[in-house]
Amino acid sequence: MKERLESEAVATAVAQEQADFFEKNDAFFTSYASDSSLEIKQSPKGLGTFAIDLEKGVIYAEPNFWEPAGGLVESDKVFATLHEFEHFREMMEMINKEGGLAKFKKHLDKFKKRKRFSILDNCVDDIKMNRSVIERASALDETRSRLYEKKLFPEDDLSKAPKHLQFSQAFLREAMLPDRQTIVSSDVRAEVERIKNIKSGGISLMDFMTAPNTPMETRLKLQERFLEPVMEKFFKEDVEQRKKEKETGESGKGSGVDESEKGEAGAEGSEEEEKKDKKNKKLGKNKTKNPEDYFKGQYDEWDKKNLPTLPMTEIEKALKDYEKAKKEEKTTAELAEEAYAKAEGVTVEELRDYRRFLEKLEEIKNPETDESVVEEIREIFRKIIAERKKQTLRSKLPVEEGEILAFPAQAHVAVESGNFEPRVWETVDWKAKPKELFGEFDVTIVCDRSGSMERPSSKKIEQRKAAALLMEALKEFSDELDEEKPYFEFDLNVRSEVWTFGDDKQVEMLKPLDKNLTEKQRVLVYKILENTPGDGTKDFSALEKIKDGVPAEDWAKIQKRKLKKLVIVLTDGDSDNPAEVQRLLEEFREKGVVVVGVGITTDGISAKITYAPNGLVCEKVENLAVILGNLLKEHIKELNRG
After folding, report:
1. CA 17 → CA 3, 42, 62, 307, 480, distances in Å?
2. Three-class SS of residue 113?
3. CA 20 to 30 Å from 465, out of 254, 446, 453, 538?
């Protein structure tokens, strides 16, 4: 009885501790996950582990899961929870892509059958997960360092471990503890350094593979191409070494192999071995043993340090439930959505992702007015449209005198009661004609895809918001203009264009200059701006191409004030050729084009000088969409000024 009461008391205390943990950190977790459709929630009572719901997009966290490891403070548990959330986010992004679920299951099966591949994947992916956490919550960087130094890699010397494990773990340890020397075998060190020195466009292979925005599918392909062959080479060497140790009577640390396996284990992977296995199986002979059994002790030790929050069986069950739900009969609305997405040339997942993103744009407020930036822009649209309408008769009623008796019954009642000047008449007057105005308005958005936009990634995220806000606002304005065209005295056409720059590869047009702005185009821009791999800041190259693409008739329209052209350049660093930028700006100004440079954070402060007199800096990255909204409002207002 006493033991049962003590057990219940412990369970109650644990439950209360978990509740306190989430009460303190729930708002932070909600904010952390705010740029996705996923959630972090408290694990159901009594579960004792993490769980996932792929249909709802929820990861259920259990802060006491790591208690057996001991010595974890609250910040450690917060970091570990966010680390697991990032794994969940990566998984959801992959399985929600077309064909992604099948690919994820294939890789899961591979890792389940071959533990060494799972460990390599875990080491590389953990670098990516930790980079993601620190980019979104930089205050936890010290916590991350402490966890890896004290808990996961307290020893500097990995050279006594099998070489394939040295190779896998060296990447993770050196990424997490760059100031601590990691000791590995000389041949392992040579391969680690060789891979670290593989670069493309100025970005190292490992940095690209473990960048927060690199899709899981891409990371796995690169891992398979560059890392797995090296690990396999070391694995085969390790197997041969263990076989020799058994044959000579030497002990293999942590091998976990019976004497009966002597001479049977061999390096997995060769065609001949597989054919031999199949043949032996048919003949009922002893089949080749799993060579990974030689390293069971080391693998178990790895698992002990890296407790899997989600057992393989739980992940497989969640995937099975998710796949079953996906196969169930779709609603009419879902079928219609699929048909629309197909017609637009995008996937349903891409469409939904973009629309979820758009919902957040309505929430962006101007800090000076506390009003929605989108709604402020719409109000200016309404005024522009109202001022352009044809001269029309405008009705006024009710009035005391007029040309038309609008309410005869009320007039009779009023006169009978002695009121001989009732307000029952209607009159009209003429609305003033507008003056001659601009007939066309072009807006070109030039976005920065240089690698520095990743540091921190909030610059890249806010740039996407700002670009989307401008695109959506211009699309809405264009649609309203089309609806009101029959009533216009002076027509107005709005065209938009989107360009990017970085190094030469990123200097490209994402959307041509025209009045069309399809959902496919907007989704494409949204997707491309997620990646910023450029090894340069060639804004001048984009400006040169924009200038060269303006036809002669448009230059003439600009000179005659029939066309207003606005170019907005976003940048977070020094131009590779500021003198060339200023030369191009002079040409644009002489021809009547307004070019505005917006520096993103203090990193882009040089934009103020390079793009003078139309250079400005957005010091707080979260205000970027507001600044671009204000720029658009300012230049739209001028459309109705003669």
Report:
1. 21, 12, 11, 21, 56
2. helix
3. 538
d(CA 194, CA 191): 5
Alpha carbon distance 116, 161 (integer Å): 13
What SS3 class is residue 373? helix
293 CB-near residues (< 8 Å, 6+ apart): 255, 256, 257, 261, 265
What pTM value is reported for the model?
Answer: 0.52
The tens digit of pLDDT for each residue in 328-386 reads 656 777 778 888 888 888 888 888 888 888 888 888 888 888 888 888 888 888 888 88
Q: Which residues contact 46 (CB under 8 A, 6 or more apart)?
A: none
Q: Which two tokens stand for residue 124?
A: 């590389």
**Six-digit token pair at 149?**
């130094």
Which residues touch 136 (CB under 8 Å, ≥6 apart)?
A: 32, 82, 457
Report the first-to-last Cα separation within the chain, whole angstroms: 91
Q: Which long-range contacts (CB under 8 A, 24 or more apart) does 260-267 make?
A: 261/289, 261/293, 264/288, 264/289, 265/239, 265/289, 265/290, 265/291, 265/293, 265/294, 266/239, 266/291, 267/235, 267/236, 267/239, 267/240, 267/291
The pLDDT tens digits for 88-113 are 999 999 998 878 888 898 888 888 88
Most confident region among 56-60, 173-177, 325-329 by mean pLDDT:
173-177
The letter for the amino acid at 345 is: G
**How far from the centroid of its chain's Cα atoms is residue 407's Cα?**
61
Which SS3 state, helix, strand or coil, does residue 570 take? strand
Q: In 3-state terms, the chain is what percent helix, strand and coil (to 5)?
A: 60, 15, 30
At residue 390's C-alpha, the angle toward residues 389 and 394, to 5°, is 90
CB neighbours (10 Å) of residue 34?
A: 11
In 3D space, the residue among 467, 476, 513, 512 whose CA is nearest the CA of residue 628 turns out to be 467
Q: 496 is written with which tokens?
A: 């938009």
Q: Domains in the chain, start-ordered, CATH in brackets?
A: 1-113+309-326 (no CATH), 115-307 (no CATH), 393-430 (no CATH), 440-640 (3.40.50.410)
Measured between alpha carbons, how far is 331 from 606 in angstroms, rounded to an integer?
53
pLDDT tens track for 379-422: 888 888 887 776 544 444 455 555 455 556 565 556 566 665 66
Q: Would you call 276 exposed, middle or buried from its count of C-beta atoms within 10 A (0-12, 13-18, 19+)?
A: middle
Taking the CB of residue 155, how many other CB atoms lie within 10 A of it?
10
Q: Angle 123-119-264 (CA atoms, 0-180°, nearest 5)?
A: 150
CB atoms inside a 10 Å sphere around CB 390: 12
Both tokens assigned to 591 = 């021809």
